[in-house]
Amino acid sequence: MNASLDLQSASQRIPGNFGASHGQEPVLTAHDISITYEVEPPVHAVKNVSLTLHRGEILGLAGESGCGKSTLAYGLNQLLKPPALLRSGDVTFHDQGGTDIDVVGLEGDALRAFRWDKISMVFQGAMNSLNPVITVRAQLFDVFTTHRPGMSKKEKEERSQELLRQVGVDPSRLDSYAHQLSGGMRQRVMIAMALALNPQVMIMDEPTTALDVVVQRGILRELMRLRETFGFAVIFITHDLPLLLEISDRIAVMLRGEIVELNSAANIYARPQHEYTQRLLGSFPSLTGDRGAFIRTGEAI
Ligand SMILES: Nc1ncnc2c1ncn2[C@@H]1O[C@H](COP(=O)(O)OP(=O)(O)O)[C@@H](O)[C@H]1O
Ligand SMILES: [Mg+2]
Q1: Residue-wise pLDDT tens for the chain (301 aa)?
Q2: How far apart are the C-alpha atoms of 294 and 291, rounded to whole Å?
Q3: Which atom of ligand 1 lies nearest, measured to the CA of 254?
Q4: CB under 8 Å to 80, separation ≥6 — which residues?
Q5: Which of 75, 134, 160, 266 could cross-link with 138 by S-S, CB 3.0 to 4.6 Å?
Q6: How many domains does the chain have?
Q7: What is the spatial distance between Cα 169 and Cα 179, in angstroms, rounded to a whole number?
Q8: 82 inside domain
Q9: Cα dihedral sign for 233, 238, 240, 241?
Q10: Residue 296: enclosing H or E segment and its boundaries?
């Protein structure tokens, strides 16, 4: 297969993101995050990571398996569980109203109220993380019951239908169980659940990795459209750098627990600074040609 052609045709299906300008207003700031798994010997999974997520942007987080992407994502959302330990650092969520929230300091009810409402997450392996014994409707209703206790049954039903429509799934699927849905549909339902409370940030951990390429494209296109409509910011995690080049505003490249490069997608593509990024780019054949041409013409990617 000619990978270059493949990327070009991909660009016709996903609205390109190069040149898209999103504000510089931060929605989430992480400073000097270090996370260790307290096992013997300890695993230093995340080392002194700092990053800023801007309102409405898609920040790609790339890096090979085991480099610490998921651990960092859990740290950003105060989801770490032993033996994982946050050794240092702070995470600040800059809420829409102007209030700053110290995410690391949250616990109990305050943490429960924060999670999913402000930052939602599509977990790695989410395709298999729907509850198999209750319907899609019951799972969406659970989110509302927990976070929006005032909502009536009718409102929940209407909102659930609306959410499925937004992710391109027929509302009749509210009656389905996970095993009755295709992999792509399950992933769309997970995205609907992540959208349910209108979060300002969505963290997606390898959301489409297990999917067929065509299905993946469809879902990503939907995600880009939803982001345009609702303005949430996304941290999109994958080991697939070519995919990130297509959808991200900026990309952070992670290597052995550290962010070794963080730049606009266009710069990562045209002028990768770190040797590891260069290697990642060099490892797919479409980029061995004239790199600049793709970006100048606005085609491909
Ligand atoms: N529960 C755990 N106990 C010990 N080490 C872990 C645990 N979970 C992850 N790790 C280690 O932490 C490092 C980072 O893992 P992870 O964040 O899952 O990487 P990625 O998401 O980039 O694949 C890896 O070396 C992994 O083996
Ligand atoms: Mg992971």
Answers
A1: 333 334 434 344 354 444 445 668 999 999 999 999 999 999 999 999 999 999 999 999 999 999 999 999 999 999 999 999 999 999 999 999 899 999 999 999 999 989 999 999 998 876 677 899 999 999 999 999 999 999 999 999 999 999 999 999 999 999 999 999 998 999 999 999 999 999 999 999 998 877 888 888 888 999 999 999 999 999 999 988 988 999 999 999 999 999 999 999 999 999 999 999 998 887 655 444 444 433 333 333 3
A2: 6
A3: 22
A4: 35, 71, 74, 86
A5: 134
A6: 1
A7: 15
A8: yes
A9: positive
A10: helix 291-297
Pocket of ligand 1, candidates 35, 39, 61, 70: which has the most ligand atoms within 8 Å of its Cβ, to mutate? 70
Handedness of CA 281, 287, 293, 298 (dihedral sign): negative
79 located within any domain = yes
- Can you give the CATH number for the domain in which 229 is found? 3.40.50.300
The Cα 260–Cα 262 span in angstroms is 7
In a domain, 278, yes or no: yes
Whole domain around residue 114: which residue ranges?
Answer: 7-128+200-286
CA of 30 to the centre of ligand 2 (A): 19
CA-nearest residue, atom 4 of ligand 1: 37
Mutate to test the pocket of ligand 1, among 40, 43, 258, 260 (most ligand atoms within 8 A of CB): 43
Contacts of 137 (CB under 8 A, 6+ apart): 157, 160, 174, 175
Ligand nearest to the CA of 63: 1
pTM of the full structure: 0.87
Specify if 255 maps to a domain: yes
Give the pair of three-digit tokens for residue 156. Answer: 């929940």
Stretch (H or E) spanning 41: none
Helix (H) or strand (E) holding 10: helix 3-13
Question: How many other CB atoms are found less than 10 A from the CB of residue 240?
Answer: 18
